[in-house]
Protein: Leucine-rich repeat-containing N-terminal plant-type domain-containing protein
Amino acid sequence: MAIATMTTPLPLSLFPFLLFIPALCFTICHANSNLLCIESEREALLKFKNHLIDRSNRLSSWIEGKDCCEWTGIVCHNSTGHVNQLHLAPLSEPDEFATNAEWEAYYNSLLGGKINPSLLELKHLSSLDLSNNNFSSIHIPKFFGLLESLTYLNLSYAQFQGAIPHNLGNLSKLQYLDLGGNDLKSKSLQWVSGLSSSQYLDLSSANLSKANDWVQVTFKLPSLLELQLSFCGLEDVPSSINVNSSKSLVVLDLSWNRLTSVPKWIFSLHGLLSIDLSYNSLEGPIPDYFGNTSFLEVLDLNWNFLNSSIPNFLYSLNRLRFLSLSSNQLQGTISSAIGNLSSVTHLDLSENQLNGQIPLSIGKLSSLKLFGVSKNQLNGQIPLSIGQLSSLKYFDVSENQLNGTFPLCFGQLESLETLDFGYNLFEGIVLEIYFSNLTRLTTLKASQNMLRFEPNSSWIPPFQCQTIELGRWQLGPKFPHWLKFQKNLSELDISGAGISDFVPIWFFNLSPQFKYVNLSYNQLAGGISYLNVKDSVDLTSNRFTGPLPRVIPTLQFLILSNNSFSGSLFELVCHSLSRERMEVLFIDKNLLTGEIPDCWNHLESLKILNLGNNSLTGKIPPSLGRTGLHWLNLRNNSMFGGLPSTLQNLTNLCILDLSENHFSGNIPAWIDDKLSSLTVLSLRSNNFDGHIPHEICDLQYLQNLDLSHNNILGAIPNCLSNLSAMAYRRYQKNYQFQWASTRTTLISFSALLILKGREDDYSATLGLVTSMDLSANSLTGEIPKELGSLVELRSLNLSGNLLTGNIPDEIGNMELESLDLSMNQLNGEIPSSFSNLNFLNHFNVSYNNLTGQIPTSTQLQSFENFSYMGNHLCGPPLTKHCSTKRSPPDVANNGSSSEGSNVNWLYVSIVLGFVMGFWGVVVAPLFFIRSWRHAYYLKLDHVSRKLYVSWATMADKCRKLAGEEKVVLSQTGQFSLWDCFDMGVGSIACAVKEGVKLYVYNIRAAHVEKSKNLAMQKALEDAMSQGLSSKDAAKQATKAGKKAAKLATQKAERVTGPIISSGWDFFEVVYYGGTMSEGFFRGKGTLLGAYGGGFFGEQVLGKFGYLVGSHLGGYMGGRIGLMVHDVANGIHYVLRIIEGKEFDKKLTDSEF
Structure:
C-alpha cells in the first residue's frame, strides 16, 4: 500500500526562508507598543469589516474608538503604528470525530461576503492572509494588484473563483504568493513575469491547461525557490519549446497532472533538490537522466505507470533522503546495491510487482526511518540485518509471500513505532520475549498469518499501541488478558482468532480512544449492553445473545451479522444511533422480531441497511425513505404490505432486496424516475401482482433483476432490451463502500442471486454479474425477440410461466451462461442459433411442447436428459433417434383448449384413465353386476392362461392361476423392506423405485403450479371483462389461483406416485412365485396405502413426509391387500359353486 500519509520533506536550504515570515510575525505581534493605530487605517478596516459576513462574531474586537493594533488579526509596526499585517485565517479544522455541532461552529467561523477596496488605505500592508475562509466563489479583487507593499499574500482554500487577475503581476515586492486550493483559471502566466522578487509560488488547483507558457515564464523568475503546480491540468510540453534553465529553483511540484513522460528540461535545472511527479501518467522506464541529478534529495514518482526494473543509477544517488516509487508497475528484484543509499530516510517501493528477496544490504541504511515494500511479490525470509536499522520507525512488508517464523530481528528495532507484516506466510509460535524491546511501538499489524500467541496470563506488554491487528492469529481459547493494559488502544482486530469465551466487562471501557473493533468470526458468547466505540464495530459470526446493545453517538459502522441478538430494533434505532455519523448498519441473520420502527428520518447519513434473515414483521416504515440509503436489504423476513411511496426519495439506492417476504400489490411505476441508480432489484418470493411496469426498462444501470415467484401477469415487456447494463459493459458498476475514513477496508455491496440453478451470495464480483429471473409467475405471450440484444446478460430464467410461441432465434446471439425456459408452453424447434451459446453451463427447456432435433454443439449435447424431458425432441443427448422425415407438426395446437394446457391434461388423462379404467371399472362390476361378473371371469381366466403359458416358458416362477377347486393362501414373495438394505440388487431396486416416486412428485408439483396459473389467467380475463380495476382483478385472480391449486393438489395426490409402487409390488409377487390375483390385491393395497400415507405425510412434513408416508402406507397397504386376497380366493371359490357346472363348462371351453 502506498504510504500516502508521509509528506515530502522540504530541502534544508529552503527552511530559513520559510521560517522568516512566521518569525517576523511573532516578533512584531509580541512587541510592546505605546503607539495608537493611524485613524485613517482604522476607518479603512471598519469599512472592510462592514462588508464581511462574520457569523461567529470573530471580529467583535473591531470596535470604533478602540486601538486597531489590539484588534484580532491585526499587527502594527513597532515604531510607526502603521498596520503592517492582516491575518484572518480561521482556527484549524476539527478532527474527523468531531460532532456536528463542532463542525457547524467551525463553518460559522469562516469569513465571507465581499472584500472592500478600503484596504488600499493600508499603504504599509506587507502581509495579507485570508486563507481557509469561504468567500462563496467571488473573484479575487483586482485592487489587490495595487497593494504595492505586499511581500506575503495567502488566499489559499478561500473559495475564490474565476480568472486570476493579471495585475497581481504588479506586486514586484511580493516574495510569497499562495493561490492554491481555489477554483481559479488562467490562459496565460505571462503576468507572473512581473513577480521579480517571488521566492514561493503556489498555483495548485488552478486550471492552467491552456497556459502553454507556464514553463518559459516561471523559469525566468530570478529568485524563485519553490514552485507548486499540482492539480493544474498540465500536459506534456513540446520538446521544441526553448526553456531557460532556472538556477535558483530548488523545489518543483508537478504532481496530480496529466504528464505522460518525465520532461527532459527538468534535468537542466541543476539546482533542484526536490522533484515531485507523483500522480501523473508517466509511462515506460525510469529515465536515465535521473542519474545526472547527483544532488537530488527528494524524488517522488509514486502513482504512475512506470514499468521497468529499478535502474542501477538510482542506487548511486547517495544524497537521496526521500525516494518513493510506490504504486507503479516496477518489476524485477531489489538489488543489493540499495545499500549505497546511505542518506535515505524514506524508502517506499510498495504496490509494484517486485519479486525475489529483501537483500541483506538493507541493513546498511543506517539513517532509514521508513521502509515500505508492501503489496509486491517478495518471498523468502526477512533478513536478520533489518535488526541493525536502529533509526527505523516505520516498517511495512505486508501483502507479500514472505515466510518463516516470527522474525527475531524485529525485537532489536527499539525505535520502531509501526510494524506491519500482515498477509504473508509466517507461521509458528510467537513468544512474549520477542516484544521486550519494542517500547515505542504504537501500531502492530500482522493479520492473516499462521501464528500462535499465548503469553503468560500475567504478561504486561512493554508497549502502548494505538492499533493492533492480529486477525487469524491463534489467540484463544481465552480472551486475551494482556489487552487490558493497552490504555491508548484505538483500533483492534482479533477476528478469527479462535477465541471461545465471554467478552470481559473491562474490554469496551478499555480506552476512551476506541475507534475500531473487529471481533468477528470467533465463538464469543453472552450479551453486550453497551458499545463504547467511536467509529466501527464488527461482531460478525459469533454467539452473542440478548437485546441489541446501546452505542455512542459517534458510531459510524455497526456490524452484528450472524449472531443471536433478539428483541426489537426500537431502542437502538430510535434512541441510540446518531444522525451525524451512522452510515452502515448490518444486523442480518439474527433473531430480531417485531416491526421495524418508524424513526429513521433522523439517520440522514445512513448508506447501508441490512436487516435480512430475521423474523421482522409489519410494513416498511415510511421514514426509511428519508435516509441516504445506497443499499437496503430486508430479505427473508415476514414483512407485508406494499412499497411505501417514500422509497422513491432514495435516489442513490443501488441495491434493493426485499425477497422472501409477503409484500404485495403492484410494482410501482416511479421506480425508474426516482431509483435510477438501481443495480440490483430483487423482489422474488413475494405476492406482487399486476404487470411488469414498463418503467423498469429505463433503469440503465440495472444488472440483476429478480421478480420470480410472485403473481405477476401479462406479457414480458419488449422494452427490457433497453436495460443498458445488460447490453453494454460501460454501464456496469462494481459498487463498493469505504469502511471508514481512517481505514482502507472496503465493504463490497452483495446480493443473493439464483444463478445456474443454485443460490449464491455475490459480493466482490457483483459488478461482474448480470441476470434476469422472471420465473414462477403467470406471464403470458411470446418471449420477446428483443431480449436477444442483451448481449451482456449472463443468466436468463423464464421458467414456470405460461409463455407460448417459438423460442426466438435471437436468444442464440447472446452470451448466456445459464438459460432456463422450462415448464412453459413453448412450441416449435430449439433454434439452431443455440449452437452459438458456447459459454452455456446450465440449460433447461423441459416440459414444453418443443419438437424436432436438438441442435448440435459442444454445449447442448453435454447436458443431462432431464434438461429436455417433457417435449417431443430427438437426437443426442436423448436416446430417441430422429427420423429422416420432417418433424411432426406443432403438437401444441392439436386439440388444445382455449387455455392451452395440453401437456398437463395429457399426463393427467393417461394416469386417470389407467386408474379409472383398470382399478375402478374392472373391479366394481365383478361384485355388483351378474352378467359383467360372468364375462369378467371368462376373460380374466383366459387372459391369465395365455399370460401363464408365456411366463412359464421364460421362467418357471408362476403357479396355475385359475381353475383350482381349493382356496389358495397368499404368497407374499421373498422381497421385503429389509431387502432394501442388502447393499446389492435390492438396494439398487429400492433406490430406483424411490427416485421414480420423487420424479413423479416433481411432475405433480409442476402440474399444480400450471393449474394455478391457468386459473389465475382465466379469472383475470373474466374480471377485466367485467370492468373491475386491475387491483381488484388481481385479487380475484389470486383467489381463483389458490382455489385451483388446492383442487389440483387434491386430484394429483390420488394419481401418480402410488401407481409406481403398486406396479412394483405386482411384479415382485409374480416374480417370486405368487399368483397374478395375489399380485393384483397386493398392488391394489399398496396403491391405496401409498395414497393415504403420502397424503397424510405431506400435510405434516411436506416433500419428505410424502416420501416417508407413501412408503410406509404402501408397505402396510400391500400387507392388507394380501389378507384381502385370501378372502377374495374364498369368495371366488363360493362364486364358482353358485354359478354351477354350466358356468364351469363355459369357463373351461371358451376361447380367448
